[in-house]
Amino acid sequence: MRHGIQRIGVRLLMLVALCLLGGLLSASLVRFSPGYGVDERELDPRLSPATVEAIRNSHRLNSGLLSYYGHYLAGAVHGDFGSSEWLQRPISSLIKERLPVTGRSVLMGVLVAWVVALAISLATVFFRGYLLDISGTLVSGVLIALPAAVVAIFSVYLRTPVFLAIALVTFPKLFRYLRNLLAHAYAQPYILAAQARGIGQARILFHHVLPLAAPALFALLGVSLSMAFGAAIPIEALCDSPGVGQLAWQAALNRDLPLIMNLTLLVTIITVAANSFANVASERSL
Amino acid sequence: MSSRLKNLALIALLAFALPVRAQTGGELHFCLHGEPKTFNPVLVDDEPSENIRYLTGGVLIRLNRQTQALDPALATSWKVSRDRRTITFHLRKGIYFSDGTPFSSEDVAYTMRLLMDPETHSTTGDAFRSGEGAVQVRAPGPDIVVITFPAPIAGLERLFDQVAILSAHSPKKEMAVLGPFYVADYKAGSYVLLQKNQNYWKHDAQGHALPYIDSVRLDIQRNRDIELLRFRRGELQLINRLDAEQFDRLQQENPVVTKNAGTGLDAEELWFNQVPAAPLPEYKKAWFRTKGFRKAISMAINRADLCRIVYAGYAKPAYGPVSPSNQFWFNKSLEDPKYDPQAALRLLAQAGFRYENESLKDRAGNRVEFTVVTNSGNAAREKIATMIQQDLTQVGIKVNVVTLDFPSLIERITRTFDYDACILGLVNTDLDPNGQMNVWLSSSENHQWNPSQKAPATSWEAEIDKLMREQAAAATEKERKAKFDRVQQIAAEQQPFIYLINKDVLLAVSPSVIGAVPVVLNPPGFWNVETLRLGPAPELGVQK
Amino acid sequence: MTRRRLRVICAAVLCAIFGVGLFASTVSPYSYARQFRERPNAAPSASHLLGTDSLGRDLFARLVYGTRVSLLLAPAAALLATLIAGVFGGLAGLVGGWCEKLVLAAADLSMALPLLFVLLALRAVLPLDISPILSVIATFVLLGLLGWPSSLRVVWATTRNLRNSDFLLLARATGCGRWRMIVRHVFPNLRPVLFAQFWISIPLFVLTEATLSMLGLGVMEPLPSWGNLLRGLEDISAVSANLWRLAPLILLVLVVICFQLILPAQEETA
After folding, report:
1. CB contact, 8 Å: C181 with chain B?
2. Which of C13, C49, C3 is nearest to C251 (CA)?
3. Which residue of B has its CA nearest to A32?
4. Is the dihedral of CA A27, A29, A31, A34 positive or negative?
5. Chain C residues touching residue A184 (CB < 8 angstroms)
6. Residues 6+ apart with CB under 8 A from C42
7. Helices and strands, counts by H and E, chain B
8. DSSP character for B208?
9. Going from the N-terminus, what domains does chain C have, and what CATH number goes with each?
10. Dihedral (C-alpha) B345, B346, B349, B351: value to the nearest 10 degrees?
11. Helix, strand, or coil here: B472?
12. List of chain A residues whose C-beta atoms are within 8 Å of the C-beta of residue B406
């Protein structure tokens, strides 16, 4: 028991370290990418030199990377995540405002994508329908070739909610994996044997196929979540959905170091959490 | 029921509905193209915030966007002293802020002090900074304000159009306003909702309180295509700036809604990097410093094609820093240079370049080749660059086009100077040449081709410096005009900026908006928002 | 055996498209950069098979040349990404322990990092005036190097599953050597996953290239690629008015579908 708790503790510590490493790396990337500390307003001929200097100084505040990181950690312990250079507002309130919007659309999108992909791929495997298989391939082929931007614009054009666009972008990749996984599982000799013996399809699916495919399925769940999160950035930016994706896009364009660093931290936490969930779940199922 | 009867019924309904519904009330709905960074009028420096300041702020003097004359607003009258350092305002009486706080000279004094405080770093305040020293603001009575500046300011009273008065006492701080609307609701990344200010001072000729409209909803929408889509569906009633291509399409579908306000003030321009310390090979720097080279490039660019193809005809070729629509300041005596690749080649030959085997070489035999950078995401500029690329092959020059995201681009043109040539449109919001002061002074950071010079690098830059300073201090507008005409002449001779085009100001206005008169000056579509009315929304007759 | 016939057809279509791309200069009547300025946005006609773009450039010529750029380089990038994912994912799955943790952590990190800035930093390092061809190659190598983490987890999960499966246990028990095991047992079972991964990433790389050009890293004007041709689709109202503008998308979809329909053949023979 004690050993178990220790193991979990070590694991958690590693995850935290990983997330922080992600944050630090992204902060350094932003800091050393071209255009850091540059402001569009500098091109405005109406500004006096003193004002331009003030604008520049406001960016210089965070330019000492190590000291910035130290300050950040010290603040973060007290729940203060700093404030955005671009919007001049505390980051915690910005994220609190926008996370629910994105969270909802990503979860809904992933759910829809999974249900549809699972249904179609099971159907193709069950019925071994030639037409079904081809049409599934065709649909996913069309969808996979559509740029996320075009999907986003279609979704605005047809007034569909953002989550459907996310589902549409996530579905084709998910479908390909799922179909291959299931086809592979069904091709295993002992399943063929079970089928030959006339064991019910449902029993085969739940007792043999799914347990066999479970680790890969759980890994896929993690991947699909982070995939949907990635897709949310361009989609939200284009649809002007007030979520984290839009915020991240704007932050990147404005080289907003504190904001990007916090958002990266958030994304790392979500990715790492989703993946460790997948790991733990798949270990259990073995 | 026959369709005829139905139609009749509809007409009858409309007949009743029209006069009643067109009176007052309703919500005007249009888009901001970015997040407003601040609601504090003193700190405004981006377009979305500027639009909100225009809709909510009360100013002493209003520049009439249509007549380009100054109208009294919160000040009933004003007087500028002979030395153009002091301005005296007489304020309107019995006026209240949107939250009920009374308005007096104290508020004006408070606003001016805040605006001119060096710690505030206000863009609006910077326009008033003509010389060293403090600004003195006195309020000898509740309705008199006297403001004295350390040095004379040309076109002083015009600058007050940008100064929205803040309340010195209101507990709501900058959210208490004197303009036609106040900010009632704001959801970051989504929308700003403005409600009618019940205390607004203005009334129409019949004594009705202005504005007629109850509220304005501003959606934050960066994507122009989506904006157009929503306009066609009737969700939006106004688009303040349309791309030429969008305008062209909309015009073919529904000419009633498209409005062309005329040639605007903004120009697109190309310039070569003339910074001595730039990390470029010396021979390249030598080309860019050669007057004949720059003039030849300017001649070899087919501006008429740019207007026709990139802007669907909704632009005019530009040859100088002042748009022809700026009637007073435009130098009419300057000749428009012709598009003439042959003449360009002759000019290049005079400057020591050789044209052989369809490629241009300089004296030392280096192939003339350079890279034009511009910002990504601006389709028009990318097209301009690509067309210039083809135009210049005619004089044997090879051009590479690279698009960079804005911060990287700005870093290159203001910090590292690691670029050959750049295409950008520098904003030009002011009719007055003082608005371009920082572009022309060789010591300024916005002197893009060679910024922040200790001493002018060339004699012509020295002459421009002198002329710009003189025009700002000159006593009469006529004298100022003569000086600035000469600046335009030098710019045409030297081509430090190769001006390309002036865009038309293009809008879309739904027929349900009554009283809209689009203009060239900002904000083109809703400058007269207080007298706009909303009628019934007729079917746009465009798709879905 | 209609399925086999279908595969033959798909393969023929792909070969044809590849061929057209390879011999672009003989197939297309004009140069991809030539601007017919008197005919911008023209509809398809005998002289311009697919019409012209907004600068009057022949869209057919651009499509043909773009095919060459994209169809030669996107699969190369996909191959690179899949190889990296295969090697590291397989390693992590087979070896386990610290190696596994390290690889997974690296994948998690690079998935979460704002890659945009990696690319921006790279753009700053590269000079502005590198030749277009070189920049195209650099772009796709980069895409290949950066595209691995999304496939990695799938490969890893499959490998780990294999490690614990009965037949490998059996193989080990019968004294099968380590390399022999990898080559004879692990790799054949990984192959379908790797192939799926490879085909899926091709269109992704084609599309990512389009986004990259916004950072000044993609294919530079006037060189065409499917990516920058597809960017034209973002203006949806222009597309609905001129349906022939969809040609690059149709071509991409066609290629992707053909690739995918050929794929099961390998799966079954494996």
Report:
1. no
2. C13
3. B408
4. negative
5. 192
6. C36, C48, C51, C52, C56
7. 16, 21
8. P
9. 3-269 (1.10.3720.10)
10. -100
11. helix
12. 35, 40, 253
| pLDDT for B522 | 85
- The 3-state secondary structure of B15-39 reads HHHHHHHCCCCCEEEEEECCCCCCC
- Mean per-residue pLDDT of chain A: 81
CA distance B343 to C67: 40
Whether the per-residue pLDDT at B533 is higher than 50: the answer is yes
φ, ψ for residue B375, nearest 5 deg: -85, 145
User: Rounded distance, CA A222 to CA A271, Å?
Assistant: 7
**C230 vs A252: CB contact, 8 Å cut-off?**
no
C216 in contact with B at a CB cutoff of 8 Å? yes
Q: ipTM beyond 0.90?
A: no
Query: How far, in Å, CA of C5 to CA of C265, rounded?
Result: 11
Chain A environment of B449 (Cβ under 8 Å)? none
Chain A contact for C256 (CB, 8 A cutoff): yes
State how far the Cα of C88 lies from the Cα of C92, in Å rounded to an integer: 6
Partners of residue A157 in chain B, C-beta under 8 Å: 229
| Subunit contact C222:B401, Cβ cutoff 8 A | yes
Instruction: Decide if A42 and B445 are in contact by the 8 Å CB cutoff.
Output: yes
Pick from A21-25, A116-120, B55-59, B418-422: least confident:
A21-25
Cβ neighbours of B414 in A, within 8 Å: 38, 42-43
Nearest to C221 among B308, B373, B382 (CB): B382
- Amino acid in the structure at residue B290: T
Which amino acid, residue C217? L
Is pLDDT at C152 greater than 90 in this prediction? Answer: no
The Cα–Cα gap between B178 and B181 comes to 8
Nearest chain B residue to A85, by CA: B37
Tokens of B97: 């802020």
Cβ A54–B435 below 8 Å, yes or no? Answer: no
A34 to chain C nearest CA, in Å?
6
What are the structural domains of chain A? 84-285 (1.10.3720.10)
Residue A129: the pLDDT is: 67
| Contact across the interface for C216 and B385, Cβ inside 8 Å | no
For chain B, say whether C40 makes contact (Cβ under 8 Å): yes
Nearest to B107 by CA among B66, B145, B149: B145
CA distances from A149 to A153, B473, C143, C210 (A): 6, 53, 19, 11
- Which tens digit of pLDDT belongs to each residue from B330-350? 999 988 878 999 999 999 999
pLDDT band at A90 (very low <50, low <70, confident <90, very high): confident
Please, what is the average pLDDT of chain B? 89
| Neighbors of chain A by Cβ distance (3+ pairs < 8 Å) | B, C
Q: Environment class of residue B484 by beta-carbon count within 10 Å: exposed (0-12), middle (13-18) or buried (19+)?
A: buried
Task: For residue B106, give the nearest of B120, B91, B119 by alpha carbon.
Answer: B91
**The two three-digit tokens of residue B449, written as one number:** 């081709």
Query: Among candidates B111, B107, B169, which has minimal Cα distance to B143?
Result: B107
CA dist list (Å): C108 to B169, B215, C119: 54, 48, 18
Stretch A8-13: mean pLDDT = 83
Lowest mean pLDDT among A6-20, B475-489, C163-177: C163-177
Q: What is the mean pLDDT of residues C108-125?
A: 76
Check whether the bond before A258 is cis (ω within 30° of 0): no
Over residues B94-123, the pLDDT tens digits come to 999 999 999 999 999 999 999 998 888 888
pLDDT band at B436 (very low <50, low <70, confident <90, very high): confident
Report the alpha-carbon distance of residue A198 to residue B346 in Å, rounded. 91
* More confidently predicted of A90 and B542: A90
